[in-house]
Amino acid sequence: MTIRYEANPPKILSGVDTSESIAKFIKKIKIVSKNCDAIHLTENVLGYQRVPPIKVAKIIREEIPNIPITVSLRVRDKSEEEIFRFVEECISLKLSGILILMGDPSQTGKPDSGQIPSATVKKLREKGVDSKIDLYLSISNHPDFSKTGKKMDANPKGFMTQVVQNIEQVQSLADNLNGFSVIPIILFPSEKNEKSAKFLNLDLASYSNGFEDFVKKAHKITGDVLITSPRDFNGVNNFLENLSI
To answer: What's the burial of 1, exposed, middle or buried (CB within 10 Å: 0-12/13-18/19+)?
Structure first.
């Protein structure tokens, strides 16, 4: 039974002290880790250059040794050698799992490598990596299950969904992915997150009233929920602090 918090490592920006940005980021993780069961670190969201999740995971592991950590791994702009090196680092840090996804196109112009998430999971499983760390794939919040064969054949530990906005989506995913772990991602509804909601074509108003009940019902179905709040840390931390599952 797990409530995870999704955290986007700081962007690497010209004229901004990256070390200072990392310190502020870690401070927030220390705060929110008291109110959740695990942390998920993203990688280069929307293709922007960010501090690598491995780098901040090392610091979190030192500062908060007992918090389970999962990370995202973009394969779009990595070679097979880079992917295996990333995975070995995750294992050495004793991270809990890796979400292997295509990722958004790079904003720095880095060319696509041609790597495919489902094929990557297969290769890693052939090397026995799945005995050392959990491997996850991403899945739509309302997929055509007749076209998810390659992802299911890759036999990951489970799937982290696109952001869901109603319990029917969660139930459908759980029913159709029987035998796999399902981790629904839920966007914390607040005014500060409206921009993110519009980008994701979500209607926050559809679940902002009764949000806690929505989270509890989703958690009851899957036993594992990932809450994201890219623009409202204080709001989601306060929610998690008062959430009782």
So the answer is: exposed
Q: Which residues contact 39 (CB under 8 A, 6 or more apart)?
A: 4, 5, 7, 29, 32, 33, 60, 67, 68, 69, 70
Three-state DSSP at 50 gives: strand
Burial category of 172 from C-beta neighbours within 10 Å (exposed 0-12, middle 13-18, buried 19 and up): middle
Angle at 235 between CA 28 and CA 96, to 5 degrees: 50
CB 28 within 8 A of CB 7: yes
CA gap 153, 162 in Å, rounded = 20
The Cβ-side half-sphere exposure at 136, using a 13 Å CA radius, reads 20
Average pLDDT over residues 177-192: 97
The structure tokens 């297969």 sit at: 122
Mean pLDDT computed over 138-153 = 95
Distance CA 97, CA 134 (A): 4
Q: How far apart are CA 186 and CA 84, in angstroms?
A: 30
Instruction: Indicate the domain borders of the chain.
Output: 2-242
Are 21 and 35 in contact by the 8 Å Cβ rule? The answer is: no
* Average confidence (pLDDT) over 86-95: 98
Provide the token pair at 89: 């680092």
Return the CATH number of the domain spanning residue range 2-242.
3.20.20.220
